[in-house]
């Protein structure tokens, strides 16, 4: 993918938009997340995941996103 894209996180879903695409994903699609020093990684399956760089968040947004992940990404049993 070339060009900038925008990601919006809400209580209901993750919405993405870019120069040539748009999409939405509900939180129920994700079964795990991992936070590293520089990234948030959301796992959809054992072979499909999405990464979001921490540098794209303000400090306040980092805390809000971390809280959102804790509420919305519940491990499936």
**Overall SS class:** alpha+beta
Main β-sheet, in a few words?
A: 3 strands, antiparallel
Globally, the shape reads globular
What is the terminal separation in angstroms? 34 Å
3D structure, described in words:
- The protein has one domain.
- It contains 1 helix and 6 strands.
- The protein has one helix at residues 59-72, and strands at 6-9, 13-17, 22-26, 32-35, 39-45, 48-53.
- A 3-stranded antiparallel beta sheet has the order 1-2-3, with no helix packed on it. It has a 3-stranded antiparallel beta sheet with strand order 4-5-6, with no helix packed on it.
- β2 and β3 form a beta hairpin.
- 5% of the residues are buried.
- The model has no long low-confidence stretch (mean pLDDT 92).
SSE blueprint:
Elements (H helix, E strand, L loop, with lengths): L5 E4 L3 E5 L4 E5 L5 E4 L3 E7 L2 E6 L5 H14 L5
Antiparallel strand pairs: 1-2, 2-3, 4-5, 5-6
List its traits.
single chain; 77 residues; alpha+beta; 3-stranded antiparallel beta sheet; 6 strands; 18% helix
Short description:
With 77 residues, this protein is an alpha+beta fold.
